[in-house]
Design a protein that fits this description.
The protein is mostly helical. The protein is 69% helix and 0% strand. It has helices at residues 10-13, 25-32, 35-44, 48-63, 70-96, 103-116, 122-140, 147-167, 179-197, 204-231, 238-262, 269-284, 299-316, 337-352, 366-389, 396-405, 412-436, 442-456, 461-478, 485-503, 511-535, 543-567, 580-602, 610-628, 650-667. Helix 12 runs parallel beside helix 13 (299-316).
Amino acid sequence: MLRAQRAVPAWLAHPFRWQRLPVPWAAVARGALCAGPLLGAGIATGHPAPGVLTGLGSMLAGVNDRPGTRRTGIVHIGLPALASAFGMLIGASLQTADAGWWIVPALFAVGFVSGAGSVAGPVRSNAGMQMLATTILGAGMPLPGAPWAKALLVLAGFLWLLLLRLVLRSPRPAGGALSGERAAVATVFEALADALGAAGGSGAEPARRRLTAALDRADEALRLRRLTSGLLRRPARTEELLLTERFAAATALCEASVALLWEARPLPSRVAESPRRFADALRTGRSPGRLSAPETSTAARGAFDQALLDAAVAFARREPLSPAPGQPAPDPAVRPAWVTVSGSVLRWTLAAVGGRTRRGRSLFGPAGRDYGLRVAVCIAASAAVALLLRPEHWYWLPATTTFLVKPDLGPLFSRTVNRFAGTVAGVLLFAGAGLVLTGSWWPALVAGAGGALLPFATRHFALQTVAITLMVLSFVYASGATEAAAERVVDTSIACGIVLIVGHLPRLADPRRRVGHRVTSALGSTEEFLRHVLEAEPGADPTRRLALRRTAYRALGEARAAAETAGAELLAARDRNPDWLTVVTAAERIVDAATACAVRLDHGAHRPSVAEAERLCQALSAMADALEDPRREPAAGLQGPDLRPVPDCATLTDVAAELERIRGYAGAS
């Protein structure tokens, strides 16, 4: 069916979207004590350059200072810190060598690597963006010092914020240690309660997606803790194993709940109250108390009540099972220490930054090359224009382009509008502060205010631009360029124009090339999960099934984000591309239906024949293959196996219907 026409186009409405998030007061305090005091220390000692470089490092770290456990914070801040220091080393070396116009091809190369990293996950994408930014600033800002010293000062700024994150954090809950990990698992139970409360209503699917996001965050937090324990060769403590068991119980309860949500009937409030009791138990350390009475009206409700009982048993246990659910038994083989530590470091790094092998996610694949080319061309063009117009202060223009052109940060037109508006607002605020405040110390005060605003500013890109503009202008003013504010508005205007022109070139702006690989990856994960559900032996261990379902949901979440971004682009080229968002929604419903089918099969429902299962899996695989190659016509390969309804299995009939929906929307041109 055709979508209803929106009163305001998505590309025009997107710049005004505002995220509703709680205020991270601990991060606000860290931001206020970060760049401002570092810059102030440099000014007070008569050496502003070190203050500028350490303040720059702390500002970039503040961009990545998001809610999460201490370990996730170290990963999300630490990897971009190393990349930023490396970028400063490259840029400062170019400045020392007086590279001149050789800066343009050098930035093209760094921009290509930065853009290609966008396909590898958000952490490596941020690392690539900040490496490119520090390369530009290191090559352009006239600061004294050796390249290696500048890189170390930038790294010191990151380390200062990491130290503040370890000291200034939210109070530990009454549940005791593992505060961040406990909170992450508690959030899963709360999101599950919200999803059950929304069952049968219009908010059911968004609530289920929020549940998926909560599961992702909890899984990352516990995985990092396990990998850190392996790195330190420290056996897991009792409370860690108990928390792992309770997260496994939460995962099983979520699977049973998906089957319950699939029935799309409103549930009694007491059903949603039970998961919330588990969340309170994790946060307070008390018992969950009485849970809802069991009921066996349907297979899904019976599975939910059984999972609820298993979760209650896991919470009542004071000693962990051996081994922990879903964890392999300890390896009795004795290995050299360096082998153990090296392997742990490698596993920790790969898992932490999203380095798992996924279909279509190679940095050197078609998507990586397209992303890299888009960033490289924009950066090189802006650097060349800047060298022609302002050879003495050329760095602001390509630095602005860096934060605009990254393909995974949102629609290009929306980012451009908000960047310009935020820059103008930041320049005006900075100029006003210069008129009101006196002395040499006031840039440090403005930088501190910008740092305090930065964690709150994640709600909107324009507000984030205001905070960053205030801080960068403070650094520039302290380094000696006292008349640079007005030039920044002109340079930002030029950068926005370059990005809008270059970023909308036909090859670089094709959503099929930028979204197709994520949708293909998601369909591949969906097909793998569906095949496992339909081919698994009765009574098989559900651990593998749960892992495949988590992988499918995670890939679908990434594909949805990419599809929503592409749908809000100024030139979405919908006439030549599938309806990506509808394809992703249908794939999400296939995973939900397959989950419901798995629960019903566990409770004795009719098991489809091998031919029926293979027919559905082949259809989904054929659709993924048809979307994989961006040079192929969208409709090619979509005329796959026949999709007749599956007898005696309502959920698989729904799977067939969603497959037909994907075929219709993906093949439309």
